[in-house]
Amino acid sequence: MAMMKEVPDERGRYGSFGGRYVPETLIPALDELSVAYEQAKHDPAFHQELDALLKDYVGRPTPLRRADRLSEKLGFDVYLKREDLNHTGAHKINNTMGQILLARRMGKSRIIAETGAGQHGVATATAAALFGLKAQVYMGEEDVKRQALNVYRMQLLGAEVIPVSSGSKTLKDATNEAIRDWVTNVRTTFYVIGSVVGPHPYPMMVRDFQSVIGKEARQQFQNLTGTLPTHIVAPVGGGSNSMGVFYAFRNDPVALIGVEAAGSGIETGKHAATITVGMKGILHGSLSYLLQDDDGQIMPAHSISAGLDYPGVGPEHAYFHDIGRARYDAITDKEALAAFHQLSELEGIIPALESAHAVAWVIKEQDPLREQQARVLINLSGRGDKDIDSVRDYEEGHHD
Amino acid sequence: MINVGTSVAQVFEHTKSEGRAALIPYVTAGHPHLGDLEELVRAMNDAGADIIEIGIPFSDPLADGPVLQKAATKALNNGTKIRDVLQATERLSAHSVPLVYLTYFNPVFHYGVRDFLKAARDSGVKGIIIPDLPWEESDEVFHDTQELGMSLIPLVAPTSTDAHIASLAKATGFVYGVSVTGVTGVRQEVDAGVKTLVERVKRQISLPLAIGFGISTPEHARYVGSVADGVIVGSALVRRIDEAGVDAAKQTYEFVSALRKALSD
Lengths: 400, 265
Description:
The complex is a heterodimer of chains A (about 400) and B (about 260). Chain A contains 17 helices and 15 strands. Chain A is an alpha/beta fold and about 400 residues long. In chain A, a hairpin with a 1-residue loop joins strand 12 (about 280-285) and strand 13 (about 285-290). Chain A starts with 12 loop residues before the first strand and ends in a 5-residue tail after the last helix. With about 260 residues, chain B is an alpha/beta fold. Chain B has helices spanning about 10-15, 35-45, 65-75, 80-95, 105-110, 115-120, 140-145, 160-165, 195-205, 220-225, 235-245, 250-265, and strands at about 20-30, 50-55, 100, 125-130, 150, 155, 175-180, 210, 230-235. Chains A and B meet through strand 2, helix 1, helix 8, strand 12 and strand 13 of A and helix 3, helix 5 and strand 6 of B.
């Protein structure tokens, strides 16, 4: 397999995707961040500090293990990379640790973040608390309601949660508000972006911080089986856990599958399947695929999983899709819920609804996978505690 | 005399000869309704505006504060479409001081950059402002606007580097100076950094410089007009239109007249 071209280029481009589409006020801050990140990247002391934190505070490496009962049931090997076992319960902490260390190096005293499901907000609040920094987290009013437990966790960690009432009152609008705050307080404030989205260098930086998932998984899989997986499956909202696990395998003969949220069904228009049906456009600082109407207005996204409820996607995923390096499919709320129960009952693991989408894809595609004698690696990006109320509400019929 | 066919650059030559700054009010097309645009533009025109900014609403206006966000949401909720804005503008532009569009990059990109700019030119507008298209990403749009005889109006912020300011020398029309680090919106005071920003820009380039963001009263306009070549007023006017109901055109006329008087005194 030919080696892939290294992306992004110096302008933050992944093919035609990426870039920096933000107000001029922020451009110098992005330049400053790029320089600080480049220096940190080449500073062994930075890596030493980050690695120690990931090991002793976050709990890395996370385990990788064969899901025995699920494998027996499906008739091929399924392995789970357990990002749900990270401190705070999801992969998000890998990135916030890296960014908070960077914020400290840059002398920024105030931290802001946006959050959808709340996992990134909790991870940011956690990392900020660890270093005694003040964090303010923007969250759509709709998500504040859906994810009450995570709101309380952020508050316990000393962060301030700022509800956002504009637009669709979800992650997209929380992100707009975080950018507005950053434009206003750019001199003192570090904006911790939660996924591989936003203006350059964020998509690259978040990918790099999350790539620890794939690096570990590649080694662990080889140690366990003597070979590589045939398929890697991961959920895609903004796309940070999936890029984190894909990246180390980009030059391997391994199928990479990103699973988007089909919500109530693609045909209903109520979904978050950005790559599956989206068109190229510009939102939150980069050019990627977007859910938008005929006039280029951003369409609200819908998913039972607040973490996938985003009308955009990271530019590197858009690039992987365009060059055919990864495949993107969509799974409905119903299919994800069925997988949520199956994994809970078969493996004793209650997955985040995001991760349940990846499990559902494997169950749905079981026939061809069985024929290929597949060795499937699922990135279990987070645990499902935060979603239990959503699931119960949905199943009791309190959904539209 | 500013009349039909005047370019953006000529406006500043004219206002300079009168010894005052240019007045540039902003309205959101489709707020409260697209049908109101013609009357509002006429009111601004009659009240002495020198250039009029027409905002094409976008669902996610991340450089805007609450007033302009709300206006854009209202405009979109009542069905404002880009093609309708272009048509409305075409009817207006023949009877108006130079018009410029302000919109975000996605609607332009989605329409097709070249097609949109052509349609904008054909609707009679003389320039375009895209707050989320920074100068370093604007090569294609700049090239097309130059070819079509329009101005792509670049922005400069208090945080801008000298290298950025110097790179604006090739622009045409004017430079839009953002008075504060922040989003659009009404503010109590004009930021103390405005004078420094104006001086920095003037030291490096000769384009006219108009200042916007937070200029809310005739007093603000008088002060900014004494240091810069132009004064942009958006949220303060849109808020008045929002509150005025059926009186919107009258209130617009009175407010813009008061701003203009402050610049002419």
